[in-house]
Amino acid sequence: MLRKTLTAIGKRLRKTVFRAVRLLGEGDPLHVSQDLVSYHLMLDGRHKRLRIPLRTFTLPNGMRMLVTDDVAEAFVINFDENFIFKENWLLKNYRPPKGGVVVDVGAFCGLYTVTAAKLVGPKGRVYAVEPAPATFKLLQMNISLNGLKNIVPIERAVADFNGFSNLYIPHLHSSSSFYSNHLGGFEQVSKVRVTTLDDIIRDYKILHVDLMKVDIEGVELAALKGASDALGKGIVEKVVVELHEPLINYKDVLDYLVTKRFVIEAVFHPREEIAKKIVYARRM
Known about the structure:
It is a single chain. This protein has helices at about 1-25, 30-45, 45-50, 70-85, 110-120, 135-145, 195-205, 220-225, 230, 250-260; strands at about 55-60, 65, 100-105, 125-130, 150-155, 155-160, 165-170, 190-195, 210-215, 240-245, 260-270, 275-284. The chain is an alpha/beta fold. It has a domain at about 85-284: Rossmann fold (3-Layer(aba) Sandwich), CATH 3.40.50.150. Strand 4, helix 6 (about 135-145) and strand 5 (about 150-155) form a beta-alpha-beta unit. The chain is globular and about 50 Å long.
């Protein structure tokens, strides 16, 4: 029993050191130390047992995030994707550029959104698209919490049609999907408004998009087809698309981007998650 406990402690310590090293590249030591404490409290659910109200989570870059109990587990996963494994900017030239325009499709509670907003600065703009009603409210609160004026939150689902659809919300709130069997089932269902990215780009008079990040649990190809004009006319410069198999065949996405004169710069298979791929592509 003691040996098992010591092994677990050693494993946790190694992970903590690994996290600290990775995070120090993204922020200062004070924010990193705050992050590590909050992360481990959420990871184990100890903030509930110790009755610690986790109101805000300080990111390594100094931005703050409101984290509620119902999104804590999903937030931890999303945090690791962005700051530990850096899945959305494994290629350095896919970091949101200063003064640039970013469209964040599948914004969740805003972790990537607020980070992108800080990177593009006050002269840049981030359009954050999120369909789940409760998560969208949390996104709005996190934008206000950081006093960010360069983010436009948009409460919509995106696909290749206009109308309404059921959105199935599983235990992991960051993985809401049009598919009821995604991640083994759902806890809630909500009817949401659906639009296309072409309509969003027209409605908000977006003339150029430096970077579009798409992570919408199996509807990525439909979202890209709904951005046919923007992709084909050169409005969008670069895209990062997270794909979830078997909900979608990643080769279909690659083929579609190529027809829109995009160059596929990389396809990553993060860690051991064979079912997940991240595509980086730029306009030719």
